[in-house]
C-alpha cells in the first residue's frame, strides 16, 4: 500500500498527539511527581508579604539578633538578652520542604530567653524556620533555611 503526503501528515499528527497525551496522563497519575504548594493559603500569604518585609526590617534594628543552635535535647532558639522575655509572644513555624506531614507550628512560651523545640519533633535535614514574634506592640520576624 502506498501512502500519499496527506495521509502521512495525518498519521504524524495522530502519533504526536498520542505521544503528548501519554505524557500528560502519566504525569497526572504518577504519585512520585505530585508536588504540593508550600502552603494551602499561598495567595493570602502573598498579599501579606509587605508586612513580613516590615517585620524583618524591625528585626534588623535590634541590638542583638535572634539565634538558634542544635543540642542533644533539640533546637534552642535564643531571643535577645536585652529584651524582657515575659513580654515576648508569637509563633514558630517549621516547614519541611520534602514532607508536608512534618510541618508544625508552636506558640512561643518562654521561661527564660530560650525556647526549646524537642529533638523528637525534628528529623535531620533541611528545614525552613519562620519565627513571627511581638515585643512591646512591635512585630518582628526571623526567617532562615536551616540544616538540622
From TrEMBL:
<dbReference type="InterPro" id="IPR008620">
    <property type="entry name" value="FixH"/>
</dbReference>
<keyword id="KW-1133">Transmembrane helix</keyword>
<protein>
    <submittedName>
        <fullName>FixH protein</fullName>
    </submittedName>
</protein>
<keyword id="KW-0812">Transmembrane</keyword>
<keyword id="KW-0472">Membrane</keyword>
<feature type="transmembrane region" description="Helical">
    <location>
        <begin position="6"/>
        <end position="25"/>
    </location>
</feature>
<dbReference type="Pfam" id="PF05751">
    <property type="entry name" value="FixH"/>
</dbReference>
Amino acid at each position: 500500500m502506498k501512502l500519499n503526503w496527506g495521509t502521512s501528515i495525518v498519521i504524524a499528527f495522530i502519533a504526536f498527539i498520542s505521544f503528548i497525551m501519554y505524557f500528560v496522563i502519566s504525569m497526572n497519575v504518577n504519585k512520585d511527581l505530585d508536588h504540593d504548594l508550600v502552603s494551602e493559603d499561598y495567595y493570602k500569604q502573598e498579599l501579606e508579604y509587605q508586612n513580613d518585609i516590615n517585620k524583618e526590617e524591625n528585626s534588623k534594628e535590634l541590638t542583638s539578633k535572634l539565634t538558634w543552635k542544635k543540642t542533644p535535647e533539640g533546637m534552642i532558639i535564643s531571643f535577645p538578652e536585652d529584651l524582657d522575655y515575659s513580654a515576648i509572644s508569637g509563633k514558630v513555624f517549621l516547614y519541611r520542604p520534602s514532607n508536608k506531614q512534618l510541618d508544625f507550628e508552636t506558640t512561643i512560651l518562654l521561661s527564660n530567653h530560650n525556647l526549646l523545640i524537642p529533638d523528637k519533633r525534628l528529623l535531620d535535614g533541611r528545614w525552613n524556620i519562620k519565627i513571627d514574634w511581638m515585643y512591646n506592640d512591635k512585630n518582628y520576624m526571623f526567617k532562615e533555611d536551616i540544616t538540622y
